[in-house]
Amino acid sequence: MKLTAVPRITLGLVSLAVVLLMGFDMVLKLFPSDADATRDVRTRVANSLAIQAAALLQASDWRAVDRTLAAVQARDKDIASIGLRRADGTLAAQAGDHAQRWPVGGDAQRPAPDTVSVALMAEGHRWGALEVNFKPTDLGHSTGWLFSGPARLVALFALIGGAIYYLYLRRLLQYLDPSSVVPDRVRSAFDTLSEGVLILDLNGRIMLANKAFEALRPAVDQKPLMGVRMSKLDWLVPAASAADAADTGARRVPWASVIKTGQAQRGLAFEARDQGAVKAHVVLSCGPLHDERGHVRGCLVTIGDVTELARSNQQLTQTLTELAASKQQLQLQNQELEMLASHDMLSGCLNRRALFERAGALFGRAHRDGLPLYCVMADIDHFKKVNDTHGHGVGDQAIKRFAALLRQHVRPDDVLGRYGGEEFCLFIPGASLERVLQVTEAMRASVAANNGEGMDAQVLVQLTSSFGVAALADGANSLTDLIDLADQALYVAKQAGRNRVVTYTASPMAQGRS
Questions:
Q1: How many domains does one find in the chain?
Q2: Residue 383 belongs to domain with CATH number
Q3: Cα–Cα distance list, 47 to 83, 130, 237, 413 (Å)
């Protein structure tokens, strides 16, 4: 379980105070040591015993010395052994197994405070020493220190001081908590806003958050917000920084930019996510908060939930896409309908109505601007014989193949249509007579050389064609006049033996070029 702010601060203060207390004790010896106290007591016991032993040594009463040592060792359970050692190192008297407990070398080799050695004087000279070997203690070890007086004092201080710190900090932070100093009417006003509102300090910590912002938070993130850095909100920060990077080119959280530069940022749109899923579509704006001197003291963050608007926009976009697709489909259908309405189903060329509409536009422009315009009438030779010999099915194939051969030589600006039956009419604008005759001659040659190729009939059908050419300059005052002139030239070609190109002349029976 994660500790809240007050217990964490309390633990930190208690730890700091304990460290300082122990440091001062190491330098200034503020608290008495159990080891020192024990050594003082043992030293006094050894000195008292040494005085008694010195008096008995003056009387040379060794029996009394042995009885005294044994009585003291038996009475004091803390004493393991006692010995009188002469200056030459020999042991004169002992109580307990002192010879084994006290090796040669004396207290210089024994750890204090387990041993005490007191010098004995006789007749102004050092006679030897009284050695007292106490039972070992654990005061010099870490486990012993845990139960020592200073340790108990530190533990008591930590316990009582921790409780006092905790109560004091709770009271203090109530006064420092922004939520407690904000008047209820102000908080109520913030909570009535439909947008999420945050107030941040200079370090990006949250000082105030309204209910609308609380509603935007993921269900798994319900920790208190007061004092939390805005950058710790994982569900918000990555998307906000990405939106800021797209808007300003610098990938950092927008409120940090506002606090640093003092320039407001508005309208950053992004998706707030909850465990990877989109929780809400939001628009974030940030503005600096200034003090009376104009210095930036914090940041006001507003987050508007535009999920419904985004959903409506998405539906509208989808509808517009569907409408665009429908429009495109409708245009294709209209084109197909226009194709069906303006083109002959058998030949694929313009039908008579469409031919006259488009040719009429060419005639009007050429007549108005004085531009050249030629009309070519084309006809399959002996077509009735094809129908009578092979049937109308082969005749239809002949018309279809004838139209395909004509289209091979037609320019994009030319207008080709089926005039009726096996007759076709071609309008060529903006060309010279030589060019028109070259085109029509190429058409005639293509038909003559085809030899029935492309037809599904089981019999070989040899086709030829005749062409009549007339120009607007030949005196046509209308489109119908121009077609009649070309038709007259076609009649001449038929009369002249067919399979030829004839141009219109003033004398209808004049021979053209073949």
A1: 4
A2: 3.30.70.270
A3: 13, 9, 77, 138
Which tokens sit at 458? 């089981």
Sign of the dihedral defined by the CA atoms of residues 505, 509, 510, 513, in that order: positive
Same structural domain for residues 279 and 370?
no
Q: What is the mean pLDDT of each run of 10 residues along the chain (514 residues)?
A: 72 81 71 72 85 80 84 86 86 84 57 76 82 74 57 78 80 59 68 86 87 78 77 76 56 81 85 68 88 88 84 88 90 83 89 94 94 96 90 89 93 94 95 95 92 62 92 93 96 94 72 40
> What CATH number has the domain bearing residue 64?
3.30.450
Q: In this structure, are residues 49 and 193 in contact, taking their beta carbons and an 8 Å threshold?
A: no
Other beta carbons within 10 angstroms of residue 204's beta carbon come to 18
CB atoms within 10 A of CB 410: 15
Range of the domain at 61: 34-142
Domain assignment present for residue 419? The answer is yes
Cβ pair 66, 56 in contact under 8 A: no
**C-alpha angle 479/482/485, rounded to 5°?**
150
354 dihedral zone (left: phi>0; alpha: psi -120 to 50; beta): alpha
Q: How far apart are CA 512 and CA 427, in angstroms?
A: 19
Strand partners, 502: 468
The reply to whether 259 falls in a domain is: yes
Helix (H) or strand (E) holding 126, with range, is strand 125-134
